[in-house]
Specification:
Number of domains: 1
Order of helices and strands: EEEHHE
Strand order of the largest sheet: 1-4-2-3
Radius of gyration: 15 Å
Helix content: 10-25%
Bound molecules: zinc ion
Structural class: alpha+beta
Distance between the termini: 22 Å
Number of helices: 2
Strand content: 25-35%
Shape: globular
Length: 88
């Protein structure tokens, strides 16, 4: 089974309340590209008390669009039963 990025559903608010082992991922809503971003990069860009939704407004994709969605989560294996519609 392959590991994939699993965003948490929690609304963290600001950077400083997010666990330090979390992975930050930016997805571009315009072109769909996903890339991992370093926490330090985000802290340097906006400060460690910045709200995620404020930071994502500053992020620009390589396609030129400012349509970033910033997510915090972990790499893991998706639970096989979640998202499955054909339960017997
Ligand atoms: Zn893009």
């Amino acid at each position: 089974m392959s590991r994939k990025f699993l965003p948490t559903n929690a609304d963290f608010g600001s950077l400083n309340v997010i666990p330090h082992d979390a992975i930050f991922m930016v997805r571009c809503l315009a072109c769909g590209e996903m890339r991992e971003v370093n926490r330090l990069f985000l802290e340097e860009k906006a400060g460690h008390t910045a709200q995620l939704k404020v930071i994502e407004k500053r992020l620009k994709c390589s396609c030129g669009q400012k349509a970033a969605k910033l997510m915090a989560g972990y790499y893991g294996v998706e639970h096989p039963r979640l998202g499955s519609k054909d339960r017997s």
